[in-house]
Amino acid sequence: MAQSSESNFKIVAENRKARFNYEIGETFDAGLALTGTEVKSLRTGKATIAESYAHVDRKGEAWLVNATIPEYEAGNRFNHEPKRLRKLLLKQRELAKLSQGVEREGMTIVPLRIYFNDRGRAKLRIALARGKQLHDKREVEKKRDWGREKGRLLRDKG
């Protein structure tokens, strides 16, 4: 029996502005080093990664900065801090690509989404991205508006 190419995963948080503000390059799937209450809080689906970013430090470790995972209501004194640094679990080759992209090419590591994979593990999809200029953003918006208008015109005629 053939396996399906689409894996069934549950998206917890998505950075929808990333594709508008950045030109997305190569993407990576990283594991997250989380505590128990963070995982339970993620399962409720209230995390936000809109203002977050990732960076690689001098030791060669990747960290997720400024992501908000709210406290778990039933966690009492064992709760976590909502905006703490979270370690990203990546292979050495992926870490080298990320650090090279940031240092040499002036790119940014942008988180795109947090999701649970089919094995129930929390994963973070990150991308090497280059910031868009204002005129690039306007051009994308013009194309989107024209596509909508074209669809309306074709629908009205046909």
Automatic annotation (TrEMBL):
This is SsrA-binding protein. Required for rescue of stalled ribosomes mediated by trans-translation. Binds to transfer-messenger RNA (tmRNA), required for stable association of tmRNA with ribosomes. tmRNA and SmpB together mimic tRNA shape, replacing the anticodon stem-loop with SmpB. tmRNA is encoded by the ssrA gene; the 2 termini fold to resemble tRNA(Ala) and it encodes a 'tag peptide', a short internal open reading frame. During trans-translation Ala-aminoacylated tmRNA acts like a tRNA, entering the A-site of stalled ribosomes, displacing the stalled mRNA. It is found in: Cytoplasm. HAMAP family: SmpB. One of its GO terms (cellular component) is cytosol. Keywords: Cytoplasm, RNA-binding. It comes from Methylocystis bryophila. The keyword Cytoplasm applies. GO terms for biological process: trans-translation; trans-translation-dependent protein tagging. One of its GO terms (molecular function) is RNA binding. InterPro entries: SmpB, SsrA-bd_prot, SsrA-bd_prot_CS. PANTHER family: SSRA-BINDING PROTEIN (PTHR30308:SF2), TMRNA-BINDING COMPONENT OF TRANS-TRANSLATION TAGGING COMPLEX (PTHR30308). It comes from the Bacteria. NCBIfam families: PRK05422.1, smpB. The keyword NAD does not apply. Belongs to the SmpB family.
